[in-house]
Amino acid sequence: MLNWLKQLFTSVEKPKEQVPQTPSQPVYVAPPAMLGSAELKKQGDDHLARGDMASAATCYRKAIVIDPDFAKAHSNLGFVLMQQGRADEAERSLKQALALDPKNADTCFMLGNLAILSRSDLESGCQYFQKAVELMPDFDVAYLDWRRYMSLQGKLEQVKQFLIAGIASDPARADFQNYLGNIYQDEQQFEQAMACFQQALAIRPDDADVLENLGFVLFKQNQVSQANAAYDKALALRQQATVLGPDDLDLHYKLATLLLVLNRHQEAIASFNQILTLNPGYVEARLGRGLTSLLIGEFETGWKDTRDLASYAAVGYPEFRQPLWLNDSDINGKSILLFADQGLGDTIQFVRYAEQIKKLGAKVYVRAHTSLKSLLGTLADLDGIFGEEDILPLFDYCCPLSNVALAFNTSLETIPASVPYLQAAKERVAYWESQLSSFQAPRIGIVWSGNPLFRNDKNRSVHLQRLAALLMDGSRHFFLLQKEVRALDAPFMASLKNVTDLGPQLNDFAETAAVIANLDLVITVDTSVAHLAGALGKPVWILLPFAPDFRWLLGRSDSPWYPTARLFRQPTIANWDTVLDEIKRDLDVEFPVQESST
Fold first, then answer.
1. Cα 234 from Cα 3, distance rounded (Å)
2. pTM of the entire structure?
3. DSSP, residue by residue, 189-223
4. Does the pLDDT value for residue 339 go beyond 90?
5. pLDDT tens digit string along 511-520?
6. 19-49 burial string, b = 16+ CB within 10 Å, else e?
7. Which H/E stretch holds residue 525?
8. Rounded Cα distance, 109 and 94, in Å
9. N or C: which end of the chain has fewer CB within 10 A?
10. Which residues pair with 525 in a beta bridge?
11. Neighbours of 266 (CB within 10 A)
12. Is residue 502 part of a domain?
């Protein structure tokens, strides 16, 4: 995001008053004291590109003094102030920019982010995002943010109706057709989704984004040959685009991400390398290369490339004064804070390293998501566990949990895989034992979807109705461990007879752990519950998409991170049917239905 924004704000814009010289006039280079507003803005852009926010702000302010109506200078100053955490000043600058240039979608986008991130004003933020989408076709980043925050407010239907109305007034809006198709896809209205994508392609036949979306829906409909054709064309267009624009980093990045969707990892790494040759500071490409390297088992390269994973944090990267520790200094007799910088599952996965750090003679503190605090308190020999709002103790070093594997130069052979390393509280285990005592074995927990706001959710989550053959055979009892149930799943869930919904009673991960301790098996998609069951040492079967997350590696049914895990992989994109058939067969073998005696 930051790279994208920097590129956005470093475009050259001439102020209205600037009069170009005629070719016959000699070129006059003004001394620094006489720089015009355009030159000062350009200097500010250069400072911004190098990350020198203070110097950039100075240049933009000078440009505004010369030309108070220089909208782009106001807008760029607003961005810099956002980066400096000066929200009120940033908002004033951005609003001034918007008053001068009311049709600037980029300024609307920044104001939307500022409203939400600085004061949690979802309503105002969404209004700005909507305006940005109205003003700029294909402003995907603004649309995705708008959709995300409207969904959080339960207003996704309003987004849908906005798109429908927009298409009715302007049928040539291929971007709206594409956005609407994705909503229909999420709602499992596949015919409507395909119709939207095909309408978009009728307008823009060579739109690779739409072709990818169409291919995904075709795979969901088991139309494999047509789906492959759509992806093949999208790939050809991406490759052609990079040939025509060899220095366009965004084109190379889109090609790399499509190659990852297709599990063509070495080609994706080559694309990331091309980006980094052109711009070594392109953080997204280095992160992409690192995660791909981890996925194919090249850990040494992968951990180094993902060292700055915290910049993509789900929780945020606090700016501690204490030095970063990567096993590069003696911490015997010192104290260290390990802090969660990614999602819940990542925290559970990497907190295992606390024990190894403890053995180096340090006091070890952990700061994590509040919902994990009670659970992580069961970690052996931990000196303190703190939630996001807790006051921290004094400490000498810090390390984000995403970096601890790098600190120990972790390889496939040296992954600390002793389980369980987390425990469920005995009194809660006893409580749930009494609650579940009337249910015969096997007791099986189910999680079928994750956070809908997760960027790759459409690939990893399953709609509950897809599990019908598994859940409705009447021979086993299942316990739903899903904290939140999507509106699309609720009617089907209500019709299930041999299922108990425990979600409303699971107020944190410690409670979920106590339930899992009383189960024989957990079946889950790639969510935090997969990590929780694995860390507890319980049998867990994990459903993986065709292009899996880095931690699950490739071509294996076991996990070196979790010895009790079994992996079930999609053989093709969106093919959950094969996965579920395999799970049903393995259930029949390992947990055969007991014939009742008459």
1. 25
2. 0.84
3. -HHHHHHHHHHHHHH-TT-HHHHHHHHHHHHHTT-
4. yes
5. 999 999 999 9
6. eeeeeeeeeeeeeeeebbbbbbbbbbbebbe
7. strand 521-525
8. 10
9. C
10. 543
11. 10
12. yes
